[in-house]
Specification:
Length: about 240
């Protein structure tokens, strides 16, 4: 399979290594210094583009990929106010887009566990709910896309919670998400249920970027030849 990389930071390098090890060809690499390559024959020859860039550049990367008729596997978070535009392109223009807030298999198991625990805890209002997430100092968005997905999973299943809020719980119906940026931490997410008598928590701690990179390559393999808006639930069939 021919793969284009959009964004060539630490994740881009890790994805490149895994893609090559799985027999794929990297036909184009686009970073901040060569955006004109979206117009190149090499980029247009890609079966799929894997994109890990920045929140500010993401939506324009998707537009330019769609213009070149190259399907996208998107790993950037912090751009979701443009999601309706992307979904419309998939529904009305036949574009292909795979989005996940986190491509790690372990994190997606954690998403499922989070929703299951939330269904149980819906029946126990004596427990308040909060979250903590820690990432490296280079991460530009807060809270992380993974934290938002976790919060949405709780809100869908716990009737007493309606919104998430950064750092503070302004109302009882809010879930406070505390964000820490330090060192080179790949990602730690913890859900905490606390009452007057005890605490219940679940936690996922990423050791490195390899799980994310492998998941992105697997998503590219899954996306190849498909149309529409896709996600990890489609690929993993949880």
């Amino acid at each position: 399979m021919n793969i284009a990389l959009i964004g060539y930071g630490k994740m881009g390098h890790e994805i490149e290594k895994i893609a090559i090890s799985r027999g794929h060809n990297i036909v184009s690499i686009i970073d901040v210094n060569n955006p004109e390559d979206f117009e190149s024959a090499a980029f247009k020859s890609a079966d799929v583009a894997i994109e890990f860039s920045t929140p500010d550049s993401a939506i324009n990367n998707y537009r330019r990929s769609f213009a070149a008729n190259v399907p996208v596997v998107a790993g950037t978070t912090g751009w979701l106010d443009h999601m309706d535009e992307v979904k419309k392109a998939c529904a009305e223009e036949g574009k292909t887009f795979f989005y996940a807030s986190n491509y790690s298999l372990g994190v997606n198991i954690f998403f499922t566990l989070n929703r299951y625990l939330a269904k149980i805890m819906n029946n126990y209002p004596s427990y308040d709910i909060r979250m903590e997430e820690t990432h490296h100092i280079h991460k530009l968005d807060a809270p992380s896309g993974t934290a938002i997905t976790l919060a949405e999973g709780i809100i869908e299943n716990v009737e007493r919670k309606e919104n998430w809020n950064l750092e503070t719980e302004e109302k009882e119906s809010d879930i406070a998400i505390h964000c820490i940026r330090e060192g080179e931490v790949p990602g730690i997410h913890e859900i905490i249920y606390e009452s007057e008598v005890d605490t219940i928590s679940i936690k996922h701690d990423s050791k490195n970027r390899k799980g994310l990179a492998l998941g992105a390559v697997l998503a590219a393999e899954f996306t190849n030849g498909k149309k529409g808006f896709l996600g990890m639930k489609d690929m993993l069939n949880f």
